TrEMBL record:
PANTHER family in the record: SUA5, THREONYLCARBAMOYL-AMP SYNTHASE
First-level EC class: transferase
A GO cellular component annotation in the UniProt record: cytoplasm
Xref: Pfam families: Sua5_C (PF03481), Sua5_yciO_yrdC (PF01300)
EC number assigned by the record: 2.7.7.87
Annotated ranges, domain YrdC-like: 5-191
Protein name as it appears in the record: Threonylcarbamoyl-AMP synthase
PROSITE patterns: YRDC
Family from the record: Belongs to the SUA5 family.
Organism in which the protein naturally occurs: Algoriphagus alkaliphilus
Coiled coil regions in record: none
Entry binding sites for ATP: 50, 59, 135, 143, 187, 223
Length: 320
C-alpha cells in the first residue's frame, strides 16, 4: 500500500529511480513520472490502464524551463503563461525531440503546464527533469482531489502519495493551443474562458462533441462513476424514482430535497458559488458512487463561468 506523506526528498528519490509518485496540484492529483524517460512514462500508462493514444501533460516549475522542451513559444500563448502560471492552464506547444513520443502519442505538440501547489513546485524545482502526470485515477474514472482518492484506487500500485491536502480548484486544467493564430480551447477546465479572453480576446472552443483529432484523449465517456448517472430536472427525476421505488442518490447544485436520507444527497454549493461547486464535484461523485444507492440523479449547473467546465464533466459522466 502506498505511503502517504509530505516528504519531498522521498518523492524525489523515487522519481529519480524511475518510480511513480502521486503529486498534489491545485486542479487534481497527478500520477507522476520522469517525462524524459520513456520507461517511466510507459509505467504511467500501464498503472492507469490508459490507452497509449491519449497523450500526457508535462509539468515543470517555470516558463524558463518550458523552453527546454518546446521549439517555439508563440507570443499569445506566452502571454497566457505569464498571466496564469502557476495555475490551471495547459498549453499545447511545438515539442522538441527530447520529449519522448509516448508523452505526446506521436503528436507534434506537447502539452505543458506549471501547476500551482507549493509541495509540487518545490519538488519540480529540485528535479532536473519535468514530470509527466495524468490525473491519478484508473482510466475513465473520476479524477482524484484528495490523497485518499488516490490511495483507494492506485494505492496498491504506487509507492508514495505526496500529501498536499484537498485540491483547491477541483477541476482539471483548461487546455489551450493555437490554430493559425487563433486561440483554441480544447478542454474546458479550472481556468475560466472569460479570464483567457481578457488577455487574448475571443477564443474558439472545440469541445468533445466535435470530432477532435488534436486531443484524441478527450473521449466522451470519462470522469464516469460506476453507477448509472442520470442528468435532468431533479424534481422530476426524484418523483419518477420514488414512483418506481428505486434506491437513488441526488447530486444537486444548491438544493436539498425533503424525504431523502442525508447520506444520499449532496448539494455542491448551498450558497450557489461555482468555485465551491467545482472544488466539491469529484469528491461528491465518488462519495455517492461508493454509497448504497443504485443510481445517481444529478442536475446541470448554470452554464456560466466554471459552470461550463463542471457541466462538461457531468455530461461525460452521464454518457454510457
Ligand atoms: O489539471 C490537469 O491537467 C491534471 C493535473 C494532474 O495536471 N492532469 C490531467 O491529465 O488532467 P490527463 O492526462 O488526465 O488529461 C490530459 C488531457 C488528455 O485528455 C489529453 O488528450 C490532452 O490532455 N493532451 C495531452 N497532450 C496533448 C497533446 N499533445 N495534444 C492534444 N491534447 C493533449
Ligand atoms: Mg484524466
Amino acid at each position: 500500500m502506498a505511503e502517504i506523506g509530505k516528504d519531498i526528498e522521498k518523492a524525489k528519490q523515487l522519481l529519480e529511480e524511475r518510480d511513480l509518485v502521486a503529486i498534489p496540484t491545485e486542479t487534481v492529483y497527478g500520477l507522476a513520472g520522469n517525462a524524459l524517460d520513456a520507461e517511466a512514462v510507459a509505467l504511467i500508462f500501464e498503472t492507469k490502464n490508459r490507452p497509449s493514444f491519449d497523450p500526457l501533460i508535462l509539468h515543470t516549475s517555470s516558463i524558463e524551463r518550458v523552453e527546454d522542451f518546446v521549439e517555439s513559444f508563440p507570443e499569445k500563448l506566452k502571454m497566457l503563461a505569464e498571466n496564469f502560471w502557476p495555475g490551471p492552464l495547459t498549453l499545447l506547444l511545438p515539442r522538441k525531440p527530447i520529449v519522448p513520443d509516448l508523452v505526446t502519442s506521436g503528436l507534434d505538440r506537447v502539452a505543458v503546464r506549471v501547476p500551482k501547489h507549493p509541495l509540487t513546485l518545490a519538488l519540480l524545482e529540485s528535479l532536473d527533469f519535468p514530470l509527466a502526470a495524468p490525473s491519478a485515477n484508473p482510466f475513465g474514472y473520476i479524477s482524484p482531489t484528495a490523497p485518499a482518492h488516490v490511495a483507494a484506487q492506485l494505492g496498491e500500485k504506487i509507492p508514495y502519495i505526496l500529501d498536499g491536502g484537498a485540491c483547491e480548484v477541483g477541476l482539471e486544467s483548461t487546455i489551450v493551443g493555437l490554430e493559425e493564430d487563433e486561440i483554441v480551447v480544447y478542454r474546458l477546465g479550472g481556468l475560466e474562458v472569460s479570464e483567457i479572453e481578457k488577455i487574448v480576446g475571443p477564443v474558439i472552443i472545440k469541445d468533445h462533441s466535435s470530432s477532435n483529432p488534436q486531443a484524441p484523449g478527450l473521449l466522451e465517456s470519462h470522469y464516469a462513476p460506476r453507477k448509472p448517472f442520470i442528468l435532468g430536472d431533479l424534481r422530476q427525476l426524484i418523483a419518477e424514482n420514488i414512483e418506481a421505488k428505486s434506491n437513488f442518490a441526488v447530486l444537486s447544485y444548491s438544493d436539498y430535497f425533503p424525504g431523502i436520507l442525508p447520506g444520499n444527497q449532496i448539494a455542491l454549493s448551498p450558497n450557489k458559488n461555482l468555485h465551491e461547486a467545482a472544488k466539491n464535484l469529484f469528491a461528491a461523485m465518488r462519495k455517492l458512487d461508493e454509497g448504497n444507492s443504485a443510481v445517481i440523479l444529478a442536475e446541470l449547473m448554470p452554464e456560466v463561468g466554471l459552470g461550463r467546465a463542471i457541466n462538461d464533466r457531468l455530461r461525460r459522466a452521464a454518457v454510457k
